[in-house]
């Protein structure tokens, strides 16, 4: 009779030696996107500048939490970015409302939802995490909290965004069908499709081996007033488990919420999936639930595990993510996709 402990030990050694198959879950392990720490990754091409800001903290041995906050503040303040922070396109009533969340290595998290008049929503979210017994503050309550903590009230609606909103109003159709009203505004750049970079999600691993993440957005252009997507929802737009890894998402938030997407990605990595394959499986869940709709929208996931391995997957072509480490600070990678 084979000694049970010896049998288990031999099985583990065999799996590691092959490096190609996790027999327990029947899932391939991929180590092609390995990177030494520290490292920061984020969604979309504007993630390059965001990563570089985060890197200034990481390279000095700083905390991942500080890095992701500093990083996403860059697109939040970029007036040319019409989908994050100040300068973001408004809802159908002309209000620029921001959503953001942040999560550290200890499982602490904070979020603001549908907040107006404050550029750096991510910093308010961090204060919710650190100064309140709550996880989320919304609307006027979030604004009140921000003002009480020294943030300045601003007009977030730029002239360019206001012009785009007024153009949309000419033929606006108020129907509860995703993006139907925008078909008259810009048929090739509908919010949520492969051309719409609607969120920045950022994940960082610091020198201490700790993970943190941040996600911030102004949401879908011309959404219903009060609409909130996945970006500020812990487990949907962002999730961090310091034992396993972290994940974030971008695209049509409603579909990410329905699958609790970022939490799903992290749990798949717990089971032995590589970051890329975990993201792919999460995207495939959306396809299985709504195959017709999945062909018309964009959703992408980005993940990194505790070892600094990273990967991404999306529904449609056009999704990209930025990577920054000691070797290179401006790497942009084309994400794989189902369609």
Describe what you observe in this structure.
The chain has 339 residues and is of the alpha+beta class. Helices cover 32% and strands 20% of the residues. A hairpin with a 5-residue loop joins strand 11 and strand 12. The longest helix has 15 residues, at 4-18. It is globular and about 50 Å long. The relative contact order is 0.17. Mean pLDDT is 86; it is low at 4-32 and 175-184.
Quick synopsis:
The chain has 339 residues and is an alpha+beta fold.
Helices and strands in order:
Elements: H1 4-18, E1 39-43, H2 47-58, H3 64-77, E2 98-103, E3 109-115, H4 121-131, E4 136-138, H5 139-148, H6 159-169, E5 200-205, E6 211-217, E7 238-241, E8 245-251, H7 253-259, H8 261-270, H9 275-289, H10 291-294, E9 299-305, E10 310-314, E11 320-325, E12 331-334, E13 336-337
Parallel strand pairs: 3-4, 10-13
Antiparallel strand pairs: 1-5, 1-11, 2-3, 2-6, 5-6, 7-8, 8-9, 9-10, 11-12
Could you tell me the strand content as a percent range?
15-25%
**Helix count, DSSP H or I runs of 4 or more residues:** 10
| Low-confidence parts | 4-32, 175-184
Helix content percent band: 25-40%
Distance between termini? Answer: 51 Å
Sheet with most strands: strand arrangement: 4-3-2-6-5-1-11-12
Main pleated-sheet profile: 8 strands, mixed
Number of strands: 13
